[in-house]
Write the structure tokens for this entry.
Amino acid sequence: MTLSDRSLGWLRSLDRKTATTDNWDREGRPHPHWDDRTGAPWSGNVRGDLVESALALGLMAVRTPAWTDRYRAIADQLIERHLRWWAAADWLTQLGHDPDRAHYPDALRDLVPAGRWGDYDAPGWAANGTEPWGLQADPVLAEGNLSYKASLLLLLGIRAAIDPDGRWNRPFRVFGDSGEDRTWTHAELAAHVAEQWAAQPDGPHSENTKVWPEHLAMAGLGLLLADRHHGTDHHGRVVQPWWERARRDDFGLDRPELPHTVTRYRDPLQGLAVAGPVSDALATACWLAPVVPEDARRIFDAAVAQAGPAGGIEAGAEAARRAGFALLLAKEWGLGELASALWRAIEGRCEPVIDPASGTFHWALGLDEDSPRGRPNAVLAAAEACGSGLWSRLAGPVPQPCPQIVDVDFPRLAVTRAEWANGCLVLRLIALEEQRTVFSSFRIIGAEPRIWCMSGIDGVSTDVTSREVIVRVPLRSGELEFTPGSY
């Protein structure tokens, strides 16, 4: 498999974005190119940009299994930011009634039953100053704040799928708003979320007393990925029983007809369930697809039927994000005709932009903004990188590791194909600017210490040691194949 030119261009864009220094601590501020606008007020927080940016990284790693170190490095940058104050700023600062509630779109008011608006705050506003469990400044220990923990779990799970080196199963610090950071590991975080879920079978709440199926589905996928890498069964213990209830009570999947509405969120304490159109559940279907594919497919089919064959793509960032999830799933399930219709609609609405000088790629979305809008770009990039069965494969059993290409001089040189076949390593190298007399190098680690015969690009040389193969290449694009020779 190979990366498309657009996937490579978006990888360059994300590499530049994560390499830009900023400060996510309380006294700092994330760079403006991190998206805190898409999905507001429900999910207008920069952490959504972090977790959704990781989706394409995981899918790219499936496509180029012998070249994952660039994806790993970018994922580490995403996780580092997620551990700081700004990733949970909504939980820590949105206390009480939302002062901007009067300016919400009318559609949001329709989600709250008549007569309940005054004592039931608007979607997306934490209101955790009045939560029945009491305010907890630690974003992980809090009884609520599942949206934070779900996105961190999924980020860590995708990072482990990219490279199961165990880095994030060694202790790392998550900020504490009281001034004292707490140490966690990937396995400890998963166990903690599973314990909270077991204590609240309807699912831990995300803010105030509201339980959101979309956040629970994301957390469930995160727990499944943790189980894959740590030999646990949190998913079977808490997620599967929840889904047996949710598929009936929140998604209506026990009925023969496709659902028209699904539960957007529920309040178990007040006995309140607020419905929304099934077309808004495409992200939820994405989180469910590797776990309960038949149920996810029914939600997807209902959403597409409601939105229309071209995904109902309209102008705006949130519509583009929904279209990205629809295209990802259409490609995952090999729905070629639908995927083509969605792709044409996205092409017409989302304004693809290639920068020839930097080799970067993004969708401008008709927004005329200084920086590409992060979350819809991230989901559209994931859809670009997806293919038949790739999303499920990312969440499947941990594959056997293979020898790796490392220290590629990215972005001057990139690798769009990197796989071992019958003992041979096949690469496709892409030079940002071809210069036949300028050389770069990379290393192959984990391969046998033997002579490797090369074909494809002229002027390549190797230096074989007992630990690695050092490859010197001209800055040229082309196929390069390594065939095992003598010892």
Observations:
- The first strand starts at residue 172 and ends at 174.
